[in-house]
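User: Second chain of the day. Same drill as before.
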Amino acid sequence: MIYKLVLILLILSGMILLVLSIIASQRRSSPLWLPFTLTTLCAAIWNFGFAAEIISPTLDGKLFWANVQFIGIVFLPLAWLAMTMITTGQSPKTLRAVPFLGIVPALSLIIIWTNPYHIFRQNPSINSIDVPFPVLVNNYGFYFFAVHAPYNYLLFIASFYLLFRSRRQGLVISRRQRSVLIASLALPLLVDTLYILDITPIPAFNFTSIFFTISGLLMGINVLRLHFLDLLPLAYEASIIEMDVGTIVLDASGKVTHLNPAAEKVMGTACEQVIGKDAQEVFPLLAPLWTSEIKKCEIVVQQEENDFTYQVTRSPISQARNRLVGKVITMVDISERARLHRQVEELSLTDPLTGVLNRRALARYGEQEVERAHRYQHDLSLILVDIDNFKSINDQFGHPVGDAILKATAQVMRKVIRSTDYIFRYGGDEFVILLLETQADAAFVIAQRIQKELSRLESNGELPAFLSVKISAGITTLTEDDDLEKMLQRADHGVYQAKSAGRSQIVIL
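Assistant: Same format as last time:
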């Protein structure tokens, strides 16, 4: 029963680790793919080799499979250290030293397979007494205890040191990854230490590889649940965290791999809530960027009851040979610049004397409203207002009085129309009023109210007390084949008829 259970656990652990190595080998966009693949492959070789050793009935067979195991055992600590160094963001200069650390494992492997002087094992045998199945007794020699074991433990200790030192650094997701790495290494290492100290339930039997079943499951959680192979190393991550610029990192498939604190604030979501999810689903606000043609756009986000404008840029992340491995999205706060731009734009669309919109604004908003009225089949009326005898007033009383009349007329029109309607200064003494969802008869009533309010104007120090302000107006309503220019022409013709009829008249055309 114990024999079968041990074999099942070894094969299960080996299968888990082999699957993880295959998954990692297919994710070559990750800087972790090679050390992670080698780590899990070495552990899988150890497990499968140990299972074959247990099954083998002869001493020579058990020794052969024991030696096969050491192909994985000697390089496992080095592969784990390389994976840890990349995970914790060690410098490229430090990483270049890793191949040189492989000299001792390579030497160990040569000695294990040749062993001419019996410095690795001394008189190995099979123990069949008081054990549930025959167990290989290695009787390790000088090299094992003086070089192999200390060197391996030195590499593992270095891995532990780097992981513990960085366990509180980085994003929450990265801290969890490193915690899982620590746990997945600690358990088999503890069991292996007990084996070397000859503290084991079955004499001379190493349970370490069996405990790799748990380690394999933990590493599977790291890859599949915590997206270990999808995330950037700490060196990049730390710089992103400290940036004031909101930064979102996506992998090649468009899934979120990083969200720094500045981006969390902009997007209103925590990093751990979106890691591994499709960016198009979790960030609909960035929809313009999901089309390949658009690489830059602006978004407006409400934060603390204020609107903030961000310039959002999408840039590719490429490795050698221009192979796309991901994208980075940056969000720069341009709220102040956007505010100034809006102010400049408003000034460019506003008549400086009267404060109403100017002729340039009429071309923009007028066409928009005509198009909208056609699309939704809404009413739209236009009033063209002309101040009667304005040139004579300017000539007689001077331009300051003329300016005062223009400002007073604009104020009256603002008072009469709705906030959703538009007033434009069309020319020297002409104004255009655009009335949304308004028919001609209602527009006529509004024009009459403007006439009435202007007749009640009182002197305010700028207008002569005896001066009466009168207007002529032409009114037209949008028809099926109309555009803004046709409406203006009809309204202008209406003003002409009003003036021809003696001024201070309102004509509907």
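The two ends are 103 Å apart (CA to CA).

User: Great, on to the next one.
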